[in-house]
Amino acid sequence: MTSVPASPATLVLEDGRTFAGRSYGAVGQTLGEAVFSTGMTGYQETLTDPSYHRQVVVMTAPHIGNTGVNDEDPESRRIWVAGYVVRDPARRHSNWRASRGLGEELAAQGVVGISGVDTRALTRHLRERGAMRVGIFSGDALADHAVLLERVRSAPQMAGADLAAEVSTTEPYTVPAIGEKKYTVAAIDLGIKGMTPQRMAERGIEVHVLPATTTPEQIYALDPDGVFFSNGPGDPATADHPVALMRGVLERSTPLFGICFGNQILGRALGFGTFKLKYGHRGINQPVKDRATGKVEVTAHNHGFAVDAPLNRVSDTPYGRAEVSHVCLNDDVVEGLRLLDRPAFSVQYHPEAAAGPHDAAYLFDRFVSLMEDQRA
Amino acid sequence: MPKRTDIQSVLVIGSGPIVIGQAAEFDYSGTQACRVLKAEGLRVVLVNSNPATIMTDPEIADATYVEPITPEFVEKIIAKERPDALLPTLGGQTALNTAISLFESGALERHGVELIGADVEAIRKGEDRQLFKEVVAAVNARIGHGESARSVICHTMDDVLAGVEGLGGFPVVVRPSFTMGGAGSGFAHDEEDLRRIAGQGLALSPTTEVLLEESILGWKEYELELMRDKHDNVVVVCSIENFDPMGVHTGDSITVAPAMTLTDREYQVLRDIGIEVIREVGVDTGGCNIQFAVDPEDGRVVVIEMNPRVSRSSALASKATGFPIAKIAAKLAIGYTLDEIPNDITEKTPASFEPSLDYVVVKVPRFAFEKFPGADPTLTTTMKSVGEAMAFGRNFTEAFNKALRSLEQKGSQFDFSRTTRGADECEALLRAAAVPTDGRVHTVMRAIRAGATQEQVFAATRIDPWFIDQLFLVNEVATEVADAERLEPELLRHAKRHGFSDAQIAEMRGLREDVVREVRHALDIRPVYKTVDTCAAEFAARTPYFYSSYEEETEVSPREKPAVIILGSGPNRIGQGIEFDYSCVHASFALSEAGYETVMVNCNPETVSTDYDTSDRLYFEPLTLEDVLEIVHAETLAGPVAGVVVQLGGQTPLGLAQALKDNGVPIVGTPPEAIHAAEDRGAFGRVLAEAGLPAPKYGTAFSYPEARDIAAGIGYPVMVRPSYVLGGRGMQIVYDEEALAAYLEQHAGLVADHPVLVDRFLDDAIEIDVDALYDGEELYLGGVMEHIEEAGIHSGDSACALPPMTLGGHDIKRLRASTEAIARGVGVRGLINIQFAMAGDILYVLEANPRASRTVPFTSKATAVPLAKAAARISLGATVAELRAEGMLPATGDGGTLPLDAPISVKEAVMPWSRFRDTHGRGVDTVLGPEMRSTGEVMGIDAVFGTAYAKSQAAAYGALPTKGRAFVSVANRDKRAMIFPARTLREHGFELLATSGTAEVLRRNGVEVTSVRKHNEGEGPNGEPTIVQLIHAGQVDLIVNTPYGTGGRLDGYDIRTAAVSRGVPCLTTVQALSAAVQGIDALARDEVGVRSLQEHAQHLNAARAQS
C-alpha cells in the first residue's frame, strides 16, 4: 500500500502494554523513559532540547513534521530524544524556511521513532501509571514480545541518572552580547538550550557557556556579573557537583539565575529535597503564577522532577530567607524559588521558551536588574 | 480578586434574527453568559427579538424581552429595568452597535448603566479601521512584529479612485466600515468593479466610509482567539488556519484547528502580536478574535482585523477546544480573573491556560446558492454561507472527510466513482479551481484525479502545499481501496482511519453500504470515542464530550441510567435552522429532569445542543446512518438505551428513522411507519380520505403533456414542483399554460429523474399553521398561526400571527378536529405540524409533518408552554393528562383556547437579499414565493396586533416609518385590496407616490397621489426622476410593491432591489400592507411599550386560571 508508510514497528512499555505502528526515522531499537509532550508546535525545539536526553518523547499533537526542518530552530547541535512517538508524520512539509523533512532528519541522526500509534491512549496510560521505561523496535530489532519486554526492563531508570555531563559542552564558548555589552555572565551548561544565551545576549549580556564540570575558579576567572545554571536531563538528586558549585556562587552573593535543572539545583543548594513527578510537565501551555505580582503566565515546561519546598511560608536556609516565587496552577508544583537576602532566583520552567510562549521573558530582565543592583 | 459587588443586575443584548454572518453561535454564547450571570446571583435582563433561541427561554434570564434590538426599544427596557451594567460583547455586531448607539445618545449615562466586557473606546479601536491601523502600528513599535496591509480610508468615490493609484493599482480590497460579517466588501480588479463595490460600500457603511487595501490574496490566513482579564492575564484559546487562502471570508472558508503549517517561532509571533493587540485595544475583560495573513514566501505577517467581542470563530474555538469562551467572558466581565475560574472539563485546573489539542478539527461551510438562482457563487470577502458543519478526527483526513459528510448535501463527500483523465480536463479543472466557489475542493480533487501535480494545484489555488498533499493522500487511499483485489481488513481499517464513510467505500467497491458495514463489523473494525478534554489527556476529563476515531482505545464509560439519544439537526441551512436545535435542547433538558441520561448527537458548532453542558453526553459527530449506528452501538455497550429521538431535529434525523429501525435501533415517539404515512402522498391521501378531510387537487406528471392535462383538470393557477424536494426548492406558482411549459423546460433536468407534482393553488386562501401534541389519546393544540401573507408563500417566509386574527371559535374547532384526525390517522406520538388553507369556507389540508416544526419555539413563547419538552416526554410514554397534572402543560385548555386578552405574537421572516448579487453586481430579486429563502425570524409580542406587527418589522428590518413618502405599485389583482390601506396611509400624513396604473386607481377612489416615472420609462424630459432613482436618493420611506407572477426580470425587480440596498421597508403583499398600516397606526399614537415574556406569561396564566 503506497499510502501506508514504512515498515512495522512496536512500542513496548515496561508494564507490558504494547502499541503497534510503523517505523519513523531510523529503523532499529531504542530504549528510554517514556514521557509525553503536549506542545502543538515546536517539535524541532523539543527534539533538540538536551533535557530530553534518554527520553522517548510521545507527541500528543497528531500531525508532526508539517513544517519540516530548518537550520535556525534547533536548540542544540543535535537531536537528543532517545526515541520519537507520533501519530501522523508529514508526508510532505511546507514552510518557507524548511530545508528538509523531519523523517529524513530523524533517520540521518539515527533517532528511532514510531508512527501510527494511538498516542492518546499511550498518553493516558502514562498519565495514570506514571512515566516508565519504554522501547521502540523496528526492522531487525523486532522480536517476541517477551524478549522485547525484557530489553525494556533491563534499561536504566531515570531516577538516579546523572546525565548532565553527557549533554554538556566539553569546551567553553562565548555568545557575544547583541549591541553594547553591559554584563558578563557565566552560564553552566547542564544541557543548555540555544535560546537561553540568545535571550541574555539580546539584553547586552556576554554569555560564557561553561561545561558542567567547571570549577568555581574557572567561573570567577571571568569576573562575571552573574552566574546562570541551565536546564538539563537527569535526576537532580545526583547533581552533587553543580550543587556544590552553586553554593560557592551563593556564598559570594554573585547574582544567580537558574532555569529548570538549575531551579532544582538551587532547591538542593538551599537544603530542600527534590522528587520525581508521576508524569512530569511537558508542554507549552502551563499556567504559572508569579506570586509577587499575582499575574499568570502561560509557560513552556519540560521537567520530570520538582523541588519540595513549603509553598506558603518563607523558609530559612543557609543563605538566608527563601520563598517559593512561582507555582503551577494546575497542580501546585513549585515553579520558582527566590532568595530574599541574596541576589538569587530560579524557575522550574522555560522563560527562554523555544518552543513556547514568551510570557516569562521578563525573568531575564529580572536577572539583569539583579546584576544592575549588585553593581550599584 | 473575586466578582464585583457593585453590579446587581446586567442587561445582555442578543443578536436578533439569524442572518448570514450572524447566526446561532450567538444564541450559544448568549445563553452561556446569561446562565453564568444568573448563577452568580445577578438579575439578568435580556433583550433578543429572535424567539427561536434558547437564551429567550424564560428560565434563562430573569426578565426576557422579546423586543426589537434597536436603541429606542433597548432604552425603553433600560428605563424600565434600571440595570447596573450592559454586557454587549456576546450578541455579535448587532449588540455592539446598539450599545455604541446607546452610549452616543447618552442613554447609558442618563440611566446610570455601565458598559462591561469592553468599553466604547476599545470597541471603536477594534472596529474602526483607521484606529485599528494605529493599534497595529503601536504594537509593531513595541515588539517589532505585525503590520497592517497598506491602505487608505475613503469617504467619497473621488477618494476611492485616487486611493487606488496610491496603493499601486489593482487589485484592491474594498471594505466598508461598521458592517456585519464583512457585508459589502469585495475585490476590485478594475475600475468598473471598484465603482460598483465601493459605491455600494459607501452606502452600506453607517459612517459612509470604506477602506481600500493592498491585495494580500493568496496569503495564508490564520485566526487566534484570545481572552484577557482585568489583571492583564491573557491566554490564546485556539489557533485556526484557513484551508482556503486569503480572499475568501473566513466564514466561507474551510478552517482547521489547530494551525497546521506554522513553526513554533512563527506561531509565537502571531501570539505575541495577538496579546499586544488585545492590550492596545483595551479589551479588559473578555475575548477577542484576531485575523492574520502570512505571506507564504517570507513569513511577513499582516494583521487583518480584530473583533473586540465573542464572534462566530469564538463559538467554533469553544467547540473545538472545550474551552467555553462565552461563559468565561461573562465571568471576566463581572470581575473574576482567569485563574479564579476552574476549567469545567478537568474541574481541577484553572481557565488560565491554553488548550492543547490532540486531534484535528475541520469546519466546512454550507451554502444555499441554489436558492438564489441569479446570485454570483464566487466566494469573496463577503460571507455567503448559511451554515457550517464541524468534525473532529485524530488526523486531518479523518476530520475533513467527516466534516464533508456532515454537510448532508448530495455531493458533499468526495466522489471517487468517476475519473476524468487527460491534460485538457485537468487544465480545465485547475482553471475552475482557481476561482474560489462553493465546492472548490471537489474541483481540486477531480483535478488531482485527472492527473494534476501538487505544484499545479498550488499554482492554481494557493492552498498550502501541506493541505494539498493531504488531498493527494485521500486520493491515494481511495485509489488503493478501488483497485485492491480484495478489501483486506488492513486496507479497510486504513481507509476508515482516513475518514472514508462506508458509503464511499461501498461506491468504490461496487457494493451496498450495508454490506460494507456488515463486513466491517464482522472484522470488528469499529470507531472508538475519544474525549475533547482541553489538555491532550494531561489531566483526567470529567465531561463526556466525544468524537469518533478509528483508534485503539475508547473512553466511553459505563452508565446505569437508561439513555435517550437525541439526534440534532446538523448544519444550519435555509429551511432547517436554529429552531430545530431549540427543540433538541429542550428535549434534553426535559428528559434529563425525567431521569434519563441524555445523549446528544450533532455536528453544528453554532448551537446550544453542542455545548458540553447541555446534555449528559455529547457526541460531536456527523448525522449519517453510519455515524449514528456506531454511537448507538457504543452507548448500548455502556448501558441501557431507552431509544433514539428523531422527531425534533427537523428533516435530518427524520430521514434516518426508518433505516435506524431497520437496523434494530429503538425509535421513541412517532414510529417510522407513521412518518411515512405523513410524508408519502399516497399514504397521506388515504389518511385524509379516511378522516373525510379535503386536500387541494393534485396530480403527478412525467412529461409536459401530462402536466398540461393535469393542470387543465385542476384549473389555474397551479403550484408545480419536483417531487422529492424540501423547503420548497424549485417550487413555483404558474398562472397559465405558457408558464407551465416554461417551467418544465427550465427544470427539464429534474423532471428526467423525478416526476413533477402539480397542485391546485389556492389563490386568496388564508394559510394556517398548527402545532400540536398527540399522545395517542388526547390532542393538545399547541397553537394556531394565521399567515399574514396569503397562501403560496412558503410558511417559513411568511409572517404570521398567534392567536389567529381572523379565525373564529368555529374555525378553531374545525382545525382541532382535523388536526386530531390526522394525528390519530398518521399515528403520531409527540409533535405534529399541519398546514391548512382556508379558501372560502373550505379548510384544505396542505401538508403534515410528524415532527417538531420551525414554529415550535415561536408557539411555545407565544403561549408560554414548553411544547418541545412536552413532546420529548410524550415520546417516552408520558400522556398529555400526566403532563397537565405535572404542570408542564396548562391544567385546562390549550393553544386553541387562549383567553381573549392573551398577548398577540407576530412572527416575521428575515431574508438574506442584501448578501447576494448577480455577476454584474446587481441585487437578486426579493419577491417572496413558495420556495423558502429566509434565514431567520423575529417575534413581535404585544397586547394588540398592530403594535406586535410594528415590533416584528422593527426587529426584522428597521422601524416602520410613521411619516414621509410611501410608494405604492401593485399587481392588478391587488388593486382593489390596496385602496383602503393606502387611504389610511394618506390620512397619517404620508405623501403617496405611485406609477401610472396604481395612481389612476387611487385617484378614482379619491386618494391623493403623486405619479412617478417607472424605471423602464427612464428619466423625464425635465429630469423627472424614476422611482428607482428616488429610492436610491433616499426620497422614499416605505415601498409597497406586489409582484406580477414570478420568475424573469420583472418590472418590480429594480424597485425591490433598490429598496434592499437602501434599507427601505418593502412590502410585497397587500396583506402585509394592511398589517403595516395597523402597525403605523400604533406607532403614530406612540403607544408602544415593552414587556417581558415573564410578565406576559404571568398575565396569560392568570387569565387561564380564571377561565
TrEMBL record, chain B:
Binding site for Mg(2+) 3: 835, 847
Residues annotated as domain ATP-grasp: 133-334, 685-876
Binding site for ATP 2: 721, 760, 762, 767, 792-795, 835, 847
Enzyme Commission code: 6.3.4.16, 6.3.5.5
Catalytic activity, reaction form: hydrogencarbonate + L-glutamine + 2 ATP + H2O = carbamoyl phosphate + L-glutamate + 2 ADP + phosphate + 2 H(+); hydrogencarbonate + NH4(+) + 2 ATP = carbamoyl phosphate + 2 ADP + phosphate + 2 H(+)
Residues involved in ATP 1 binding: 129, 175, 181-182, 214, 216, 221, 247-249, 291, 305
Span list, region Carboxyphosphate synthetic domain: 1-408
Chain sites annotated for binding Mg(2+) 1: 291, 305
Function: Large subunit of the glutamine-dependent carbamoyl phosphate synthetase (CPSase). CPSase catalyzes the formation of carbamoyl phosphate from the ammonia moiety of glutamine, carbonate, and phosphate donated by ATP, constituting the first step of 2 biosynthetic pathways, one leading to arginine and/or urea and the other to pyrimidine nucleotides.
Oligomeric form and interacting partners: Composed of two chains; the small (or glutamine) chain promotes the hydrolysis of glutamine to ammonia, which is used by the large (or ammonia) chain to synthesize carbamoyl phosphate. Tetramer of heterodimers (alpha,beta)4.
Protein name (database record): Carbamoyl phosphate synthase large chain
Naturally occurring in which organism (per UniProt): Streptomyces spiramenti
Gene (UniProt): carB
